[in-house]
Design goal:
This protein is an all-alpha fold. It has helices at about 1-25, 35-50, 65-90, 90-95, 95-100, 105-135, 140-170, 175-185, 205-210, 210-225, 230-255, 260, and strands at about 55-60, 65.
């Protein structure tokens, strides 16, 4: 078991580097798109929401720019959605390799997840730098909880990717259904609106969405310099453990039949 883990960790970095290079292969400025794309995206949202619409979110003590509220949840969401979707289709995308080479195929969904977080992480980092410079300070508590939440998110996304990458080998419609499911998850979590705007009778439904716990925790940590609510952290921890352990178990249970189906 330890030997297998060492092998996985040894193969993961070169596979991740290759995936990142392939993403920008053939483009004129290559990997610089990883910086330019999120920067242009943030500037566009700044123009629309901060300069034209000038929307602000009301809180108990003050109000904050809607742009900061939006990006603190939306940018992590992009990493989550892209990582899960790319991870879910990773086995199908690499079927030509799986048929010919003996390889720890668990690395394909994991690489897709990590590559997506590297790509979207640059935008997240640019937002953090801009926001905390504008705010004037950043606390050790904020750094700790941001790092912890991102780690939770990577593990959660990896578990989801492992499960659906294995399931999609046998049921190809899973990828399309997953795209619809992510649309549902996006509009039923507190990325576009605060929890205070949700009618009381719908709050239980919104709180069932695991990304609501993540979005609320990001908002508390980044915008208000407060610890995430303990209830959100417990729910997030339990959901992450179930998804990750369940995803690995299911993947290992069915992977022996991949070569025959692919």
């Amino acid at each position: 078991m330890i030997h297998k883990l060492k092998k996985l960790f040894k193969l993961l970095p070169p596979l991740l580097l290759r995936d990142i290079k392939e993403r920008y292969a053939g483009s004129a400025i290559g990997i610089f798109w990883a910086f330019l794309q999120p920067l242009l995206f943030i500037l566009l949202y700044w123009l629309v929401f901060a300069q034209i619409l000038k929307i602000r979110i009301q809180t108990d003590t003050s109000d904050i720019p809607f742009l900061a509220f939006l990006l603190s949840g939306l940018l992590p969401w992009f990493a989550f959605q892209e990582g899960a979707m790319r991870g879910a289709s990773s086995i199908l995308d690499k079927r030509h390799i799986i048929k010919k080479v003996i390889f720890p195929i668990e690395l394909f969904p994991l690489t897709s997840v990590l590559s997506s977080f590297v790509h979207n992480g640059i935008g997240i980092l640019l937002f953090f730098i801009g926001f905390f410079i504008w705010q004037g300070n950043i606390s050790a508590q904020q750094v700790f909880f941001i790092a912890a939440l991102l780690l939770f998110q990577i593990i959660l996304t990896s578990g989801i990717s492992m499960f659906f990458s294995a399931l999609s080998v046998y049921i190809r419609d899973v990828i399309q259904l997953l795209g619809v499911a992510f649309q549902l998850l996006f509009y039923t979590c507190t990325i576009l609106y605060p929890m205070t705007a949700v009618p009381e009778k719908l709050r239980a439904v919104i709180l069932l969405n695991p990304f609501t716990a993540l979005a609320e925790s990001y908002h508390n940590t980044i915008l208000y310099n407060k610890s995430p609510e303990i209830g959100h952290l417990i729910y997030l921890l339990c959901f992450t453990v179930v998804c990750f352990s369940g995803g690995i178990f299911f993947f290992r249970k069915v992977k022996k039949g991949f070569a025959d189906v692919l």
